[in-house]
Every structure is written in structure tokens, then in C-alpha cells.
Design a protein that fits this description.
The chain is α/β, with parallel strands linked by helices. The chain has helices at about 60-70, 100-105, 120-125, 140-155, 170-185, 200-215, 225-235, 250-255, 255-265, and strands at about 25-35, 35-45, 50-55, 80-90, 95, 105-110, 190, 220-225, 235-240, 245-250, 270-275, 275-280.
Length: about 280
């Protein structure tokens, strides 16, 4: 599937004119749940044009970190609630200064699981991404529909608009969810396992699309399982070791066989193919 150039319908409503301001900044961010330390205090900046990958074993805290960055974590009360310490800001302003609707237009989250509580067409599902841009009693306009169709085109689902979402394969449903996020037109993308259910062909297509979004001035933060994909497509990496440690830095700095072996609990060996790093289990 060839990914087309980003259509003008998917331009962000937040033009970014000040490269000195990060789209996302976290200072001394620390997370814990039920007394278990997910990550000790670390700093993070995501700027326009940057792709950041979050790596770590199952249960290391990748989803919790994404939810904390998005501001969608629990309030910090009760058993199992996520406890968040530190400062998080969007566009040089503290997150607390953003109204919910304004924040929803600025940053978008692709969750790991896609709920389907009732029957809906593909187009209706993608149009959910337009809700932050509608008034209290607003209905989707022809312009909103054009944005939704453009988003479907970007994920290779032209002609799927009238189909029942429940009749699609898992990979097709994942691409519909990504199209809904594209239709939201955020400046900052937070994606939890965006390659779920996708075959290799569509994994590469989605990652190429995310790189195209970064080139268009968006910021991308994505939780991945595939180390080689992170090495190929991410500018920088947050590596969670599952014991509270978080290592951040460029992909070349962070993705070493020693660090990855420790984080994933299995010895890995680094190799290069045509100048690109790959990591093989021993």
C-alpha cells in the first residue's frame, strides 16, 4: 500500500511557529501504581517533526506513560490508580492551563484497544475524531466528511466508508482507529501500539505515514514492541526496564544490546544490515 502525501484536509488547526517551544514537555515525571514504581523521575521533550518510541517489556508501563502524558490517567485515588508526579506541559504551557476541548484539539491518543459498543459504519467511526471541533450542538459538516474521507485514504481504506465496522478484520479496524485520530487533526500524536493486528506491509505503511506527519510538523510518541522498527523510524527512544528505570536519548544512543537485553530480560545481539541496526535474540 503506497501512502499518499498528506492531503490539505488533514492540516493541523494549530500552526507551529515557535520551534523553541516543545509540543510536549515533562519535567521530573515519575509514575507508580499500587505502590509499584513504573518509572523514576525523568525529563522529556517532544518537538515538531520528532518521532519518539516507547519500548519495554509487557507491564513495564508504556500505556500508563502515554495516558499520563495525555492527561487521561486516574485521579490518583483508590486501589490501582496511577500516581503521577512531575510537570507536564503542551506548547510551553502547563497542561492544567488547557481547557479540555482545547487540549483535545491539540493532542490525540490512539488507545491500545478499540471499543465497539454499538454498530457503526466506518465513516461514522472516523467522524468521531471531529467531535472536538464541533460546537455543543453541532453536526458534522461536508468539510468534516471530506476530512474523514481524506483520513481513510491515508490509511488505504478508500471505499470502506459505508461498511459495518464489526465486519472488518482486526487490522482493518486498527486502521479505521488511526483514521479517526488523523481526522482529529492534532498537533501531538500519542499512539499505543499503533501496529497492533497489522501485517508487515501495513506496519511499514503506518510508520511511513507517521514519519510523513512528523515531516509536516507534528510530534509523534508511540509505544512499540518491535525494536527494529523503533531503530528505523524513531528519532529518540524512552526505554522502560520494568523496574522503574527509564532511559531516554537518541535511538543510536539508547538502543544498545546491553540496555535492551536488560530491559527485555533476554540477551540480544546487535547487527547491521545496509547500515541499519537490527537486534537478534541469542
Amino acid at each position: 500500500m503506497a501512502i499518499p502525501a498528506l492531503p490539505p484536509e488533514l492540516a493541523s488547526p494549530f500552526p507551529w511557529r515557535d520551534p523553541a517551544l516543545p509540543l510536549l514537555a515533562a519535567r521530573r515525571l515519575a509514575l507508580s501504581r499500587s505502590g509499584r514504581e513504573l518509572c523514576r523521575a525523568f525529563d522529556l521533550e517532544v518537538r515538531a517533526g520528532q518521532c519518539v518510541a516507547i519500548l519495554g517489556r509487557n507491564g513495564a508501563g508504556k500505556t500508563s506513560l502515554l495516558h499520563a502524558l495525555a492527561g487521561l490517567h486516574d485521579a490518583g485515588e483508590g486501589a490501582g490508580a496511577l500516581d503521577v508526579h512531575g510537570e507536564i506541559g503542551f506548547g510551553g504551557r502547563p497542561r492544567a492551563d488547557w481547557q479540555p476541548l482545547q487540549a483535545a484539539r491539540f493532542r490525540g491518543l490512539l488507545p491500545q484497544r478499540q471499543p465497539m459498543p454499538f454498530a457503526a459504519s466506518v465513516l461514522e467511526t472516523v467522524l468521531v475524531g471531529r467531535h472536538p471541533h464541533l460546537g455543543r450542538w453541532g453536526w458534522e459538516s461536508a468539510a468534516d466528511a471530506a476530512i474523514a474521507h481524506a483520513a481513510l485514504g491515508c490509511v488505504g481504506l478508500q471505499g470502506f466508508a459505508a461498511r459495518d465496522l464489526r465486519m472488518l478484520s482486526g487490522g482493518e479496524q486498527q486502521r479505521v482507529a488511526l483514521a479517526a485520530l488523523l481526522a482529529q487533526t492534532p498537533r501531538l500524536f500519542l499512539l499505543d501500539e499503533p501496529l497492533n493486528h497489522l501485517d508487515l506491509h501495513h506496519q511499514i505503511a503506518v510508520l511511513e505515514l507517521l514519519r510523513a506527519l512528523a515531516a509536516d510538523g507534528r510530534g509523534i510518541v508511540m509505544a512499540l514492541h518491535d525494536i527494529a522498527m523503533a531503530a528505523r523510524y524513531a528519532d529518540s527512544v524512552i526505554l522502560l526496564d520494568g523496574e522503574g528505570g527509564a532511559t531516554t536519548g537518541t535511538s543510536a544512543e539508547t538502543l544498545t544490546a546491553e540496555r535492551l537485553s536488560r530491559a527485555f530480560g533476554h540477551p540480544l545481539r546487535r547487527a547491521e544490515i545496509d547500515g541499519k541496526a537490527v537486534f537478534l535474540p541469542e
